[in-house]
Amino acid sequence: MFVTYTLVWLIAGAVLCLLELLLPTAFVAFMMGISAFIVALVSLLIPNNLGLQIVLWLGLSTGFILLSRRFVPTKKSRSIQDAVVAETLTAIAPGKEGRVIYEGNSWRARCEDKENAIAPYEKVYVVRREGTLLIVIPENLLDS
Question: Alpha helix (H) ranges present in the chain?
């Protein structure tokens, strides 16, 4: 049996596409398989230039993988939910930072209202996070 580069590229494309079904790789193997199918078509036009075919396959695979990233959903980073309860460890002076205990860890915190002071061991709500700094509001501010 005579094996050509076209047949090799077709087999490689089929194996890579099937591999995506067995071991999901965020479409990486699938895009490499599609590239192999395209190179199989090109190998009909340029049958004896394996080096060019490999370079074309690498270029197409890279391009398709980069283009497919636009359509693959990304994991959202774990962020702080709105209005989560924390407790101050230290007093938070107006416009200054203090410490709160949130999810069992000590965090730097600042009051959302820069003119409001928060006493130690007071219940606060986490409004948002700015890096490693939590922006909080005291519970009594919401009650009034």
Answer: 5-22, 28-45, 50-68, 139-143
